[in-house]
Design a protein that fits this description.
This protein is mainly α. The protein has helices spanning 5-28, 35-42, 46-52, 56-81, 85-96, 104-118, 120-143, 149-166, 175-186. The mean pLDDT is 92.
């Protein structure tokens, strides 16, 4: 069934608003994004922000969580293609090497973590995304006979997040440096 032209336009406006929100969060910081700034970036009137979303915070949250989910799905798919623990870990870390800590995705991640610490609703939504990511990693670890897959997935996920949060402060924190340490955790 084809959507009506107005439904398509509405979906396109929502997508433009979400893309603009993700860009602005990374560029300016969560708290510096205003309705007017967002509408200008998306090329729509400010009234459409609140027509399509219950609040500016709801839009920012949806945009940020969408970015987090997309990266988690990308990394999960990478693990699904890996033949073993070493190949999966190498692939994860190589993928994360594309983020230097100052790129838009890294900056958005830092901002959403900070905002989630102050907004319980966003915090709960981000916690669920992280829990789903850990479950997916735990299933992959279990399929490759890693010890204590749930605990290992929790620590591995936290370590990867930590690497990303520290990377803007230490450019040497790359897969070459991190992989041997994490490999020891996977192969005790």
């Amino acid at each position: 069934m084809n959507a009506s032209p107005s439904a398509r336009r509405g979906r396109e406006v929502r997508e433009r608003l979400q893309a603009a929100a993700a860009e602005l969060i990374a560029e300016r910081g969560w708290s510096a994004v205003s309705t007017r700034l967002l509408a200008d970036r998306a090329g729509v009137g400010p009234g459409l922000v609140h027509y399509h979303f219950p609040s500016l915070q709801a839009l920012l949250s949806e945009a940020a969580l969408g970015t987090v989910r997309a990266l988690a799905d990308e990394l999960g798919a990478l693990l699904d293609r890996a033949d073993g623990l070493d190949e999966g870990l190498t692939g994860l870390l190589a993928a994360l090497d594309h983020y230097d800590g100052r790129d838009p995705t890294s900056l958005l991640f830092s901002e959403v973590y900070l905002a989630a610490a102050r907004d319980p609703e966003l915090g709960a939504a981000l916690a669920e995304v992280l829990a789903a990511t850990r479950r997916r990693i735990a299933r992959w670890l279990a399929a490759h006979d890693a010890p204590t897959p749930e605990d290992t997935a929790a620590v591995l996920t936290a370590a990867l997040d930590g690497v990303m949060l520290h990377r803007p402060l230490d450019a040497q924190l790359t897969s070459v440096r991190v992989a041997p340490v994490l490999r020891r955790a996977l192969h005790p």
